[in-house]
């Protein structure tokens, strides 16, 4: 495993009072990194506060350490730790930001703006991989809750060791976690398989509406207003449901329409390489990236379908002639 | 990583002609173990034949080495290798079994009957973990196809590193595979996420029919004859679909009814610890284990529901009073 720069380790060793901040809508990597880091620093007799946005997803609420989140903050800290957070603006922060001697950024996002006084930025599967290596360098003993936190972070940010961000180090760290606890089977099930009844029924409704446009590799799904009001509300439902289309063999482009008010749709588009659905989202006044974009839509759904088919035809011809 | 016994390594080094056999209906671990082992032996200039049952699941058909399966067999081999196969009877074998000097069994099943002249049996996540360690001991260079084969085997038999059979060694081996190839993201998607349209629609139909019995943690699903004939036929559909129930938060017992002929049902039952649905399957003339059982059923579905609720009530009271 790669070595953590000495100045980062020195900063953590030499200081006493820490505040941990995460990005807005914290995910498994953010929460897991915060807990492992926070408990590690406490083991070294440091004082640690957390300031973290709620709600936290149900599946992450099992950590005992969460009861230490968002207690009375101090006016001054030695170090404010920005974790898993690509810019300072994206951090969830107190309205009146406490003073600090050092802003330390620990993150794995390529796009990180290096906005700290000290920056520990590496392109890893999860920020928690960096945290694990920091804890090792600090000679911290990783207890079961910290192991669960690091596992949760890695497992969620790598899609259970499936995404292209997994490296040799990811698995070496996982192998070390199995020396702390012999099984992460229950935790994995909690993180990846289980859905509540509403999420399950929403997925079913999406599959039921799944339509392939004119033999093209385009999946088109509509969740109508009735379905949304009956089963909607859960935080991460749209990603899950858009995946229904993208996980169907032969599909390269997915459009998911959610009827948020009668006749008004929120459209999520997904594309696989080399297709680019960014332009069509811009045309309808939305935004996003090449492979994931969205926009609000009122109008004739049949025309939207035709637009999508047109985009596919243009782009597929372009790639055929290369 | 644990050492492979010398006698196993000697047997592979000293002999020249090998036949590889697998269990019936070979899965990812069987196919992956066979390919990695077969290609490893060929690298050492051994002669290797494979005798393997078809069909092989679509998702596994991408290996080039499959074109070497089931060619003309010899009458005599030095070694017949039984891989991932808990008993000799469970092996898919030629009608007229070739003669051999040595039967060598390589397997990870607890229930293995040690039916070989030499047995290399260890309780690992996948048989391919043992194969990896054998190949290392033989100083074989693992090429990309062999790495894909071992990854496929481990990834499928551990549910993408989620099951309780994963150990420190599983992740150490995975970390080594990332030194051969930098990403297994496409392969993981192929193995775990993608469903064909029929499988997707069948899952949707199962979710649509999903019913919770009288506020108890029992999921009841019926795939009617129309749905079965429209979308049925794929090999592994029942496990996938029964998981719809078991993956719903709050569900401990799932009954999936497939109407295989009008009015005739194949019932699959699943239970989570500590529930036992074996007895009810026996009562209806079926069989299985505590947590997974099945039977054929014609009759009043409402009575079956009542029986299931009765089983739950009895068992839950029993556990409450302990």
TrEMBL record, chains A, B:
This is Bifunctional oligoribonuclease/PAP phosphatase NrnA. Gene3D superfamilies: 3.10.310.30, inorganic pyrophosphatase (n-terminal core). Residues 236-306 form the DHHA1 domain. InterPro entries: DDH_dom, DHH_sf, DHHA1_dom, Oligoribo/pAp-PDE_c-di-AMP_PDE. SUPFAM superfamilies: DHH phosphoesterases (SSF64182). GO terms for molecular function: nucleic acid binding. It comes from Acetobacterium paludosum. Residues 18-154 form the DDH domain. It comes from the Bacteria.
């Amino acid at each position: 495993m790669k070595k953590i720069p000495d100045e980062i380790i020195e900063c953590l060793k030499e200081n006493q009072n820490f505040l941990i901040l995460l990005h807005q809508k914290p995910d498994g990597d953010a929460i897991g990194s915060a807990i492992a880091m926070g408990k590690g620093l406490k083991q070294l007799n440091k004082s640690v506060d957390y300031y973290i946005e709620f709600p936290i997803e149900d599946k992450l609420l099992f950590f005992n350490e969460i009861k230490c989140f968002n207690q009375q903050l101090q006016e001054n800290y030695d170090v404010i730790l920005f974790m898993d957070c690509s810019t300072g603006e994206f951090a969830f922060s107190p309205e009146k930001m406490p003073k600090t001697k050092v802003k330390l950024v620990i993150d794995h996002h390529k796009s990180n703006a290096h906005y700290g006084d000290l920056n520990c930025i590496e392109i890893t599967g999860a920020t928690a991989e960096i945290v694990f290596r920091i804890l090792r360098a600090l000679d911290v003993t990783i207890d079961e809750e910290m192991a669960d936190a690091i596992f949760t972070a890695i497992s969620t940010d790598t899609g259970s060791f499936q995404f292209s961000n997994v490296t040799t180090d990811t698995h070496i760290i996982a192998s070390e976690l199995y020396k702390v606890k012999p099984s992460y089977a229950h935790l994995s099930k909690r993180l990846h398989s289980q859905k509540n009844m509403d999420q399950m029924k929403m997925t079913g409704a999406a599959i039921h509406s799944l339509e392939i446009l004119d033999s093209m590799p385009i999946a088109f799904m509509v969740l109508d207003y009735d379905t949304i009001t009956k089963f909607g509300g859960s935080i991460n439902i749209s990603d899950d449901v858009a995946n229904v289309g993208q996980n169907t063999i032969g599909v390269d482009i997915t459009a998911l329409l959610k009827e948020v008010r009668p006749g008004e749709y929120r459209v999520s588009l997904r594309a696989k390489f080399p297709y680019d659905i960014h332009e069509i989202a811009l045309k309808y006044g939305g935004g996003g990236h090449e492979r994931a974009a969205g926009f609000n839509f009122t109008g004739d759904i049949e025309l939207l379908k035709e637009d999508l088919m047109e985009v596919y035809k243009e782009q597929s011809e372009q790639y055929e002639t290369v």
